[in-house]
Amino acid sequence: MYRRIRDLREDRDLNQTQIAQMLGMSQTGYSKYETGENDIPTVVLIKLSRFYKTSIDYLLGETNCQKPYPRN
């Protein structure tokens, strides 16, 4: 999972500070998600999946399909 969020960020030529700002947190805090030092809270997973237009299952490594699920 941690590699996926890093890869998604890098594929969009974004740095950790930019993603951290979007999430309303510090770069250091976000960095700990990418390294696996801290678990990613559900609310952050939701924000990341919406930002990257993918599913939480993709972020968690449960599927290789990046396409998001339809919203209710």
| Class inferred from helices and paired strands | mainly alpha
Strand content: under 5%
Bulk shape: globular
Question: How many strand units?
Answer: 0
Share of residues in helices? 55-70%
Task: Give the N-to-C terminal Cα separation.
Answer: 25 Å
Low-confidence stretches: none
Alpha plus pi helix count: 5
Major beta-sheet overview: none
Mean pLDDT over the full residue set: 93
Topology order in helix (H) and strand (E) letters: HHHHH
Fill in the keyword field for this structure.
mainly alpha, 72 residues, single chain
Topology:
Blueprint: H1 2-11, H2 16-23, H3 27-35, H4 42-52, H5 56-60
Fold and architecture overview:
It is built from 5 helices and no strands. Helices cover 60% and strands 0% of the residues. The chain has 72 residues and is mostly helical. The longest helix is centred in the middle third of the chain and has 11 residues, at 42-52. The protein has helices spanning 2-11, 16-23, 27-35, 42-52, 56-60.
Q: Brief description of this entry?
A:
This protein is an all-alpha fold. It has helices at residues 2-11, 16-23, 27-35, 42-52, 56-60.
